[in-house]
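Weekly structure sync - notes
Attendees: PM, LS, DV (DV joined late)
Agenda: review two folding runs queued last week.

Item 1: First target. Sequence and structure tokens pasted below for the record.
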Amino acid sequence: MTRHEFSTVSSRDVHIGRVVGLRVDEVVMPGGGTASREVVEHLGAVAVAAVDDDGCVTLIHQYRHPLGKRIWELPAGLLDAAAEEPLEAARRELVEEVGLTASSWVTLVDVAASPGFTDEVVRVFLARGLESVERQVLGEEEADLEARQVPLDEAVAMALAGEIVNGAAVSGLLAAQAVLAGRARARPADAPFADRPTAFARRLSV
């Protein structure tokens, strides 16, 4: 069976912002015609399931304007420096958001946020061997963060109860529980990140 090639015959920019871009692609469909596909370009991001020796994971409570409320998440941040490796971005965000460093890092999961319309993919790390350091508050949003240590099993229960809805947090917590229980194996911290978004980063580098 020959698989159809969904090639793009044209593309136009609708909006290019600070964090995302919106373009419309005209894509060849299996019947021979074309269809418009709206694509939100994103820088990509990292998130960290930081689990201490007591089995507690650090969660943050942060305001998210599209939802109009504060929600529980993992410490996370954009891959907004083109030359920065995901692991280094994760280390930086862990210090900035919750004042922690970690001596052990592995890759848990890569999460496509909503692949029907955006190329955003978040890499979630598991961090162990935690130590507290002085937190680096760099912006108003970070100053408003509430951080809390929650037993990992309790955090997973929060996700299953709908109390944690952030996609990277839900998948990261479930993956961390599976890895730490010995039911799954994590990848190395520097594992290839084949689906890291690149389109919007290329725009910013021009």
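Item 2: Second target, run right after the first with the same settings.
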Amino acid sequence: MVNTRDRSTEEKILAAARKIFLNKGMDGARMQDIADEAGINKALLHYYFRSKDKLFEQIFLEVASSMLPRIFSIFQSDDTLFTKIEKFCDTYITQEIKTPYVPIFILNEVNRQPQAFLKKVLGNTRPPVEKLLQQIEQETKAGLIKPIDPLQLLLNTLSLCIFPFLASPMIQLLTGMEAKNFRALMEERKKLVPQLIIESIKN
């Protein structure tokens, strides 16, 4: 950011944008809505953030920089596999309840520009999943869990956590569910998903 920009105004814009994105989603949000919520004119909003995409990208990177280290620390910990599954589901779903618009943004960006997007989020590093994958193999060999491809287990866990947020507009439309009821349903999944995963693999 250039020095002429006021940090408090920028924070006010970001706070307003988070609220609008939460209530209206990425597609439903308009720059005018965000300007009104922040109590500024649209020209000033465009001075700080040229487009809705740039504004959303800033918010997403803040979310990623907060959440990814917590996820990676779970993968790299010395916890048992079952504990890691429980912690991952709780951490991931808790974050998505707060920012349900993020998964759709990720999906769109990964499809549109996968290499550029991943570099922006991860830099030149790879997600530290090796220890987790090795642990799955070791616990399989030790007879602690049923034989399963480590990548399949990781994909199963990610899918069960992510899909409801990707499909939330359809789910709410088909069931007539209000947003607060959907959030309550997702709270239940913080315990339900790890139970399903663990029951499917434990001996």
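Discussion on item 2: The two ends are 54 Å apart (CA to CA).
Action: LS to circulate a short write-up before next sync.
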